[in-house]
Amino acid sequence: MTQQELKIALRKYFGFDSFKGRQEQIILNVLQGNNTFVIMPTGGGKSMCYQLPALLSEGTAIVVSPLIALMKNQVDAIRNVNDDEGVAHFLNSSLSKAEITKVKTDIQEKRTKLLYVAPESLTKQENIDFLTSVNISFFAIDEAHCISEWGHDFRPEYRRLREIFEKISNVPIIALTATATPKVQYDIQKNLNMLDATVFKSSFNRDNLYYEMRPKRDVEKEIIKYIRSQEGKSGIVYCLSRKKVEELAELLQVNGVNALAYHAGLDAATRGKHQDMFLMEEADVIVATIAFGMGIDKPDVRYVIHHDIPKSIESYYQETGRAGRDGGEGECIAFYSYKDIEKLEKFLQGKPVAEQEIGRQLLSEIVSYAETSVCRRKFILHYFGEQFDENNCNDFCDNCRNPRERVEGKDYVVMLLEAVRDLQEMQKAKHYCAYLSGHVTSDIKSYKHDALPGFGSGKEKDEHFWNAVIRQTILGGLLYKDIETYGTIKLSDAGKEFLKNPQSFVLLKEHDFSNTDDDDGGITLNGKGGAFDEALYDMLLDLRKSISKQKNIPPFVIFQEPSLKDMCFQYPITIDELTNIQGVGTGKASRYGEPFIALIHNYVVDNGIERPQDMVVKSLVNKSGLKVQLIQNIDRKLPLEDIGRSQGKSMDEVIEEIEAIVSSGTRVNINYYIDEILDPENQEEIYDYFSEAESDDLKDAYREFDGDYTEEELRLMRIKFMSEMAN
After folding, report:
1. pLDDT-based confidence at 727, cuts 50/70/90?
2. C-alpha gyration radius of the chain
3. 182 pLDDT exceeds 60?
4. Which residues are CB-contacts of 639 (< 8 A; sequence separation ≥ 6)?
5. Is the separation of the CB atoms in 208 and 329 below 8 Å?
6. How confident is the model over 313-328, as pLDDT tens digits?
7. 693 within 8 A of 701, measured Cβ to Cβ
8. 286 within 8 A of 260, measured Cβ to Cβ
9. Helix, strand, or coil here: 81?
C-alpha cells in the first residue's frame, strides 16, 4: 500500500488528515507482515497503530488487552467510525452465552476486523479451537509490559501468549506499551520470540505535563482545595485502596465536587456507568484505585492527583499520562509520605523471593523520584533510557520552578565512588549509605565492613544525604544500578575515569519529606500556601519542655510532634482553632492549650504573620459514628481483633484509630486486652520506659528492649500510657 492510499484510508475511517509521530511507518510495517514493537507514551496514538491495519487487512486481528473497561472503550470508538456494528467485538468474562454466539457469527461472516480478548479468555481451549478455524490477520498485544516480570504490572498469563499464538496461527505480532525500560523491552521481545521485530521507540517526554510532588499532610483538605481551584475541568484522583476511593469520592461529593468512584470491586454495570458519565462530562472527577488501570481515553483530563504514591515509576508515568492527551495543559500532583512506601512493602510479603526483590527495587526508584531535587522530567526520562537536558523542562516541574540549593560535591562523589570500589561493587544503595555514615547495621557487621578503613569516612553527613549523592551520581552517569542483581550499584566507565581525574560535580539539596502525617496528610504546598515555620517550632518545643518539667511528665504526653508541626502551619490562636490541629481533641486543648495559643498569638502579632484563611472542609459524618462504636466496643471489653473484623479493618488499622482517639485527648481503657497478652512485670517495664523517655518513638523503644517486645505490644502499651498520663 502506498503512503497516499494510507492517508486516504486514515481520512476515510478516522477523519484525520495526517498521522501522529511515527504512526505511518509503524502501520506500513504491520501491513508488510513484519513483527513490530512499539514503545509510545500514553496519548501518542498507539491504538491507531493496530486499528487502521486491521481495518485494511483480510481477516480478523486479535487484540490482547488486560482491561475489560479498555476493551469496551476501544470497541465503542471503532464502531463509531464504521457503519457496521460487527466491525469490532470483545470476548471476555462479562459476556452472556448469546452475546458470545453473536461475536463468533460475525467473525465467521468476515464482518469483524478487530476482536479484543483478555489473555484469560485466550487460554480457553474452546476459544483456541474457534480461532484456529477462522482467518487471523495479525496479533496485537496492548500493554505488552504485562509480559515482563520486570514490568510494573506483570501478569503471568501474558507469558503464555506466544505458545497460544502458535497454536492458533502463524501471523505477525505487534506488541505495544507506553512504558518500557530497556530491560523490560528486551524481556518482552525475548518472551514473544520476536527479537527480529522492527522497534519503534518514541520519546517519553510529555512536554505539556507539569510534575509536582507534595509532602503528604492534610491531604484530603489539599485535594479539595486544589480541585475547587480547577472548577469545570476534568481530573482523576488515584488512591491505593478501594476503601479510600469510596471515602474520598464521598468526601468530595459532600464538599460540592461532582466526583464518582471507580474500582474493581464495583459491579460491571456501575463501573461502566461511572466511566460513561466521566466521558460524557456528567462528572468532573473520577476517584480510582491505582491497581485498577482505567482504560479511559479522555483527551481533556486536566489534572491527575495521586493521593497515594504508586508502586513504580512505570505506574506513575502511565497514570500521569492520562492528563493532557490533547496536548493541552495537564498538571500531575502527587502526595508523598514514606508511610505509603512501607504499606506497599507490606504487600510484597508472602510473595516469591524474586518477586519481592523486583518489587522493592521498583519501590526504591519511586522513592528516589519523590525525594529527588533534580528536574523530574530528566529523572523520568533517564529511567526509561532517554537523555534529557533539564534546561528544556521550561519550569514544567516543581524542582525546576523552585530550584534547590546547590553545593560543590566533588569530594563527596569521590568518597562515594571509592566506597563502591572498595566494597567490590557488590552492594545496594542502603548499604553504601550506612557504610559511609558509619552506621553499623547487621549487614555491615556480617560482611565485616565496619573494619575497613573507609567505614564512616563520610560520617559528618547522614544516610539521607548519602542517598541523595547516590541518586545524583547515577543520574550523572558515574554509577549505574545493575537490574539483573536487583539494584546492586556499580561503577560506570565514566565513574572509573572520575576517580582517576575528579572534576567539579554540583549536588542539589534534596527534599525532606519527614514532616508528613502518619496516615492521611499532605503538606501545605510549596509557594501555594504557608511554609513550615522553624522559628515558631523551636519556641513551641521549648514551651513544651518547660511544662513537662513543671508537671513532671514526658514532653510528648502534652502534644506530640506532628501536632506542634501542624501549629506551625495553621497558627491557632483560640482553643476552638486548636481543636482543628492534627491529634488535638477538645480534652487536650482545654488541658494544655492556653500557654500554646498565647505564645502563638504573640508570635503572630510580633511578626506580622498572615494566617492561612481556613478553608472549611466538611467531613464525613460516619467517621465519628465509627469512632463512637469503637469506644463502645472497647467499653464492652471486646477483643480488638473482633472489633476490627466487625468493621472490616485489620488489627493495624484498629490500633491506629485508637491511637488517634487517645492522642486527641479521649481516655480509652484497653487494660483488659493488654492483660491477656503481657504479664504485669512486662507492662510495668514498658510503662516505666515511656514515663522517662524523651520521645514516644516506637523505633527507640524497640531498640531499648532489643526486640523483646513486638511493635504491636509496644503500641498498645503506649496507648495505655498516653491514655492515663495525658488524658
Report:
1. low
2. 29
3. yes
4. 673
5. yes
6. 988 998 998 999 888 9
7. yes
8. yes
9. coil
Set of cell numbers at residue 9: 484510508
Q: Can you list the positions of beta strands (E) in 536-676? A: none
Q: In this predicted model, what pLDDT tens digit does every residue of 373-423 receive, in sequence order? A: 899 999 999 999 899 999 999 999 999 998 888 889 999 999 999 999 999
Of residues 43 and 414, more confidence is placed in 414
In terms of Cβ atoms closer than 10 Å to its own Cβ (0-12, 13-18, 19+), residue 114 is buried
> Domains in the chain and their CATH numbers?
3-201 (3.40.50.300), 209-400 (3.40.50.300), 406-508 (1.10.10.10), 530-606 (1.10.150.80), 627-726 (1.10.10.1390)
Q: Give yes or no for a contact between 302 and 330, defined as CB atoms under 8 angstroms apart.
A: yes
User: Checking DSSP bridges between strand 209-217 and strand 259-262, what pairing results, if any?
Assistant: unpaired
HEC string of 429-487?
A: HHHHHHHHHCCCCHHHHHCCHHHCCCCCCCCCCCHHHHHHHHHHHHHCCCEEEEHHHCC
The answer to whether 440 and 521 are in contact (CB under 8 A) is: no
Q: How far is 720 from 726, CA to CA, in rounded Å? A: 10
What's the grid cell of residue 160? Answer: 503464555
Which cell numbers in the block locate residue 418? 571509592
Cβ-contact 245, 233 below 8 angstroms: no
Cα-Cα end-to-end distance for the chain: 81
Residues 367, 161: contact at Cβ < 8 Å?
A: no
* Inter-residue contact 89 to 103 (CB < 8 Å): yes
Residues 261, 287: contact at Cβ < 8 Å? yes
